[in-house]
């Protein structure tokens, strides 16, 4: 082992990556990959960047420094080990189609100011065999070692034809299928003006906004997941934010025991959009958080949904008709606008959105097919990425114009704890009544296999 170790050291030129080898196959894009190699200087700065083949962007995905402890090779030269483990970006531009069953990612490792040399397994073997005759540098060059990007291969879980061409790649999107509506055509008073739905571990939460003879109304409601949605026995409170100037709540999300609700004035007297918050235990409310002044969503309207990405802890939203997503960092009662992520095409009439546990964003839209999913770039440091890719459109059964798609939530309920409800993606749809209560059709979609969610 010691001899092999020293031979690998002398196979470096001035900076090298000894693992993974060039054209290494990885079994799972979501698993951390160990990068390692040697630098010729103690404490040298190491940068690992992924290449977006569509845009040319080199996104830094990891940084580290070389060890201060020297390992001396057989020629007496000192080398300093470095390593770092990182999950590669999942977005399509970073994983380009390689063939019918695999995709590839290109990684550029810089050590100090020098792009690292990489080896295939065969090149490393060749170099080691030719060391005695040629010396380490000439042997490495003669055997084909280069400073080319490190190419990693991964299986294509699914060939998705609807992915935007600029960001085409391989995604594990699963197969969606429509399940039976439940409730189906349920006309009870709470159905009026339903806007959003979200959940914690044990409860549904719903928001609503509608107009009656008394004017604009707004509510927050709660129901345990083990109680049938057909039963009109929700815990319902009038929204306290009406009296503060915000009359229209949107599609909500839950984190840390708090329901977060996007708020628009909608004929209220507030001069900007804000975020309302309710305690999940008793629906007690907290002071609003105004949308930051530098956000494109500050002005009244165009704040239909908000959702937290579990992969980076950031919150996302969009306008009703959107060409980009807006990103926020929320800490306690503080909110910061982080920037925008471009959509590959305009998406109209967005009513709701929520992330799956793996970080896939599902959007409900009262346009086109009704449901779509997107892949977002992984955030590295302060970078939120610049693009998103549409991975799938899915047709929900509804009649545009006569019926309205509203908010959605992502919740695996195939275990039977919700009476009458199965599947993983749940979308509100209303048949709006002119003189009677709105009729609720709660749509449910199964994603198979569920680990592709």
Write structural notes for this entry.
The protein is built from 3 helices and 33 strands. With 453 residues, the chain is mainly beta. The chain has 2 domains: 155 residues, Macroglobulin (MG2) domain (Immunoglobulin-like); 278 residues, Neuraminidase, CATH 2.120.10. The strands form 7 sheets. Strands 2, 4, 5, 8, 9, 10 and 12 form a 7-stranded mixed β-sheet that branches. Strands 6-7-3-1-11 form a 5-stranded mixed β-sheet, with helices on one face. Strands 18, 19, 20, 21 and 22 form a 5-stranded antiparallel β-sheet that branches. A hairpin with a 4-residue loop joins strand 8 and strand 9. The N terminus is likely disordered.
- Poorly predicted runs: 1-10, 158-168
What is the class of the largest domain in the CATH system?
Mainly Beta
Q: Oligomeric status of the shown chains?
A: single chain
Question: Architecture of the largest domain, according to CATH?
Answer: 6 Propeller
Q: Kindly give the count of domains.
A: 2
| Largest sheet properties | 7 strands, mixed
The termini sit apart by 43 Å
The gyration radius over C-alpha positions equals 27 Å
Structural class call reads mainly beta
At CATH level 3, the topology of the largest domain is Neuraminidase
* Total number of strands: 33
Q: What is the overall number of helices?
A: 3
Average pLDDT, all residues: 86
Helix amount: under 10%
Shape: elongated
Report strand %: 35-45%
């Amino acid at each position: 082992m010691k001899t092999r170790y020293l031979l690998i050291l002398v196979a470096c030129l001035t900076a090298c990556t000894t693992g993974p080898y060039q054209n290494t196959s990885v079994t799972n894009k979501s698993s951390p990959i160990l990068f390692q190699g040697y630098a010729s200087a103690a404490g040298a700065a190491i940068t690992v960047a992924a290449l977006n083949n569509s845009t040319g962007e080199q996104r830094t995905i990891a940084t580290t420094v070389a060890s201060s402890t020297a390992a001396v090779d057989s020629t007496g030269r000192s080398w300093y080990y470095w390593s770092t483990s990182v999950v590669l970006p999942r977005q399509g531009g970073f994983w380009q189609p390689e063939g019918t069953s695999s995709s590839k990612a290109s990684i550029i490792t810089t050590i100090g100011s020098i792009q690292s040399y990489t080896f295939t397994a065969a090149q490393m073997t060749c170099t080691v065999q030719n060391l005695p005759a040629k010396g380490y540098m000439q042997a490495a060059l003669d055997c084909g070692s280069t400073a080319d990007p490190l190419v990693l291969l991964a299986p294509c879980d699914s060939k998705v034809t609807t992915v935007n061409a600029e960001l085409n790649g391989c995604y594990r999107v699963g197969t969606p299928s429509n399940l039976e509506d439940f409730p189906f055509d349920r006309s009870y008073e709470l159905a009026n003006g339903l806007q959003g739905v979200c959940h914690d571990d044990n409860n549904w939460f719903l928001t609503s906004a509608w107009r009656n003879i008394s004017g604009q109304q707004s509510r927050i409601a709660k129901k345990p997941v083990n109680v049938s949605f057909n039963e009109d026995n929700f815990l319902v409170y009038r929204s306290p934010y009406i009296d503060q100037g915000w009359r229209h709540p949107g599609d909500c999300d839950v984190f840390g025991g708090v329901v977060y609700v996007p708020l628009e004035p909608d004929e209220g007297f507030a001069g900007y959009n804000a975020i309302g918050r309710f305690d999940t235990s008793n629906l007690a409310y907290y002071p609003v958080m105004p949308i930051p002044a530098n956000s494109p969503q500050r002005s009244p309207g165009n704040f239909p949904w908000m959702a937290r990405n579990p992969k980076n802890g950031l919150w996302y939203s969009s306008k009703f008709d959107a060409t980009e997503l807006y990103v926020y960092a929320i800490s306690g009662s503080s909110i910061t606008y982080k920037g925008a992520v471009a959509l590959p095409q305009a998406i109209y009439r967005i009513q709701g959105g929520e992330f799956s546990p793996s970080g896939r964003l599902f959007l409900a839209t009262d346009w086109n097919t009704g449901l779509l999913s997107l892949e977002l770039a992984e955030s590295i440091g302060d970078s939120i990425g610049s693009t998103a890719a549409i991975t799938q459109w899915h047709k929900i059964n509804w009649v545009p114009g006569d019926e309205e798609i509203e908010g959605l939530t992502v919740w695996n309920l195939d275990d039977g704890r919700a009476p009458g409800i199965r599947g993983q993606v749940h979308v509100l749809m209303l048949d709006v009544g002119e003189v009677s209560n709105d009729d609720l059709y709660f749509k449910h979609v199964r994603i198979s296999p569920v680990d592709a969610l």
